[in-house]
Model the fold of this input.
Amino acid sequence: MTSRPAEIETALQQLPPTLLNALLPLALEKTWHPVRSLSVAPDLPDVWWDQVQTHLPLVVQENGTIPVPSELREALTQRLSITFPRRYRELIQQHSAEALRDDNISLAASLLNDIGDQEGLNAVLEKWISEHHHIGNHERIELELKSIPSAWLGARAQAAYWLSQIVSGREMAIEARQQVQQAYDRGDRNPRLMQAFSFALHSEGQYQLALQVARQALATDIAGIDQLRILHLKAISLDCLSQDVEHLEAAQELLDQATAHVDLRYMGLAHVTLACAYENLSDWATAEPHYQQAITLYNRTSQWRFLATLLNNYAQALGDRGRVTEALQHLQDAERLSHISPRHQAWLAMSKATIHHRYGMHVDALASTRQAVLLLRQLQLPADEVMALSSVAERLVFNQQIEAAEQVHREARALLGTDPDGEAQLAFTAGVITFAKQEWLTAEKQFREALSGSLFNWNEARAHIYLVALALKAGKTPDTEVLRTKLDAFGQDTPLLTDASLLTETLTWLRQQPEWRERVEQVFGHQMIGTVPLRLELLGPLEIYHQERLLRFPLRRSAELLAFLALQGASTRQQLMAALWEEQADKKVVDLFKKTLRGLRETLRPLLPEGADPIVIEGGQHQLHPLLALTTSWLARDLFLAPAVHIRGPLEIRGPFLADAQGPWADDARREIHERLYQDLTERLENGDPTVQQAVQLLRTLV
Done:
């Protein structure tokens, strides 16, 4: 319907006055409904629907609603603002709130501006800017604020906008810093400006000034979310100033206040801050539960970007402590999060590559270091790319590709600016390359140059290992005291792992020294810290041990299910039922499978960290939790996938392969396994190994 304003006005005058006044609250509604509209205009009479159709040129749609022409809405709006100004103001505020819920900040703001609600306008703008800032949506903030008159922004909203510009790091950040400084110099001390000013100083490395501004703000009458924001800035400034005790106190105050306000987001942030504070004080046992609390809270509040950063940092901390499997699992969890930025993806890739490289996981490291380089290059992060390239070069050395390593090292050198960390790292990597080329004097010079710079703890320990190796090459008796001191300070001997392929002679010599033997054997002979060791005894009735304790399962098939998953790897439910039961997968078998799976979970769950599921289901496939470190004494790799089973320990034959297994899968494999094992042991016996004599005799009765 399209009508001239004069016709609309004539039609409205024909309505009974009581009906017209009752109809006015619907002025802002684009469609009317005979029942739903009563929630907005409760004074309408029961016959209102028929009356408006009689007096107004309106057409009812098939869905039972009436679309209201814009001319009619404008006429009703004008009457509403004059006749019921307070009601009009309330309705505009409600429509603004609805627009804000729909993320239409331009409409929400313009509605409030139209009614002169400056306080509400500033609050809405500040809230919208803060929420988009929190999720890192700075481009959207910049785009929308360009279309909104600057006069609409009050002091708090303007400060929130400046903070977003500073955090974004784009070209407008410099001007935003200047604007914040000028507002502060004019005497503005509103909490959002103080937050922006403290953060700006902190981002410039002026930690003492940032701390002073935060303390100024906290000395005022500040409360609620404003207080939490400033407390966090105070805590991170103290951290950067290495004031560890004060940092811990500020972090605890942040947690106390966040808890008092039941602000789950800041409670999570406070737990992260406390974890860092306790780490700085070398109290990992207290720090780790705070990491775990923060993970729980970030998951609960859907803080995916913050969770990705947290999981990355937690994984790095676990990696430093030798808990490699857990660290890689957390990185994998972070990679699966929705809406993480390319920057997060690059950081996660770099952390994964670092762990692979440090722990001598050669094949994985060759791939992951290159992937990290690719992602960092796309983001134009040259300082981080230099570090990743140095790992690539070292991996190529261990892969005996010296020329390729030198080329990558030159690429890294070309990217290097004035970063002292990068300079020390490249000197170290050059030492690794020249060591592999057997240029001993040059290598020693490069390692000492690296040690004189800003070298990370792990690589500092590695450099001292190389100096021990160079002393041996020179026919000298190495002094290992400095190496011992560095490893003790680091808290782990795992840096011995990284260069093992290049330093076999040195590690062998170290192992021959009485004071080093146990340390070397522990690094190279034990399971990774944080894993749950399970030993499978497969030759005879199935027995599964955790450490030295025989595990008891409520159902025998639960142990058999574990053995199948260990040997065959990820499997669907149908594959598992077909392997463990000869019958068709009817309701009875499905119920038995569920009981078997439940029994396996009940037995293994107490061995794993709280909340971890022993059986992980991904893409419809069941697999054992990656923290379960499985070993057995003998295995035919070509018969079983056995992706996570390591061969270790003395061979003990107590009877046929899985003698008490009930599923057809064991029957199908048993004869070939016996023949393969008999062939293997016979060859060992012929080669002079007398320890297998009894086992060979027993096997003759089985094949």
Observations:
- The chain has a mean pLDDT of 90.
- The longest helix spans residues 664-686.
- The CA atoms of residues 358 and 492 lie 12 Å apart.
